[in-house]
Amino acid sequence: MHFNFKGYLILIALILLILVYEILIPYIRHTRLHWDTKELYGQLSGSVLPWQVIGKSTEGRDIYALELQSGQDTTTTVIFGAFHGDEQTGFHLVVQLAETLYAKPKLIHSRVVLIPVLNPDGLLKRKRTNANDVDINRNFPTDNWTPVYEKARYHPGPSPGSEVETQLAMKIIDRYHPAKIISIHDDLMMNNYNGPAKELAEEMAKYNGYPVTSDVGYPTPGSFGNFAGEELGIPLITLELPDTNPEDAWEENGQALIAAINFKR
Fold first, then answer.
1. pTM of the entire structure?
2. Average of per-residue pLDDT across 241-263
């Protein structure tokens, strides 16, 4: 039997290329993003933007917010970046939005409150859960909250609303009574809506081109969408980004977020 050495080398080369494309390149990209994320979070305290510390994380890290107002309309939109610490692009996206609106306040016609990261402990460790290993987005006191979970990444906590990060999100709603909320996640690439937010999702889709849906494809008991959108009746969009870098995320969603702030039902 004749051994096709050249064909064997080609096969090995193809396998290596696939491994580089599927594993090595994403690993390098995500590692670089994590470095940039830690650096950017550290810069918030000395930023020229008037970030305010609105709370502390489980491990005592600062949770920042920026409130911007343009015009006489006090209708408020609240935008959250990273609930999940391993979904870091949303953090960068909210900081970029803050810098843009601070420099060009007339882009909006009402009030917006920007919280780039609700879970800084997880963000700095590139970890989905908070420092107590609780998934904040399963910890809200909803009718469908359950202590039962299949994977550690979905740990709902010892009781609904047990985590300081969850409690802070609820306090923000009580303080600002938002007309609408955007919560940024990844990487399902969709404008997912809860509550009376379908028209808002469709407005955002005009700019980012993402599918509009009320179903992420799996149960989310104790989620922020269930709590604020379904039970409190606040129009809420979970903006699910694709697996992308902050620059492309801004290119796709900058105008969509500004349109969402300006959207009137």
1. 0.91
2. 97
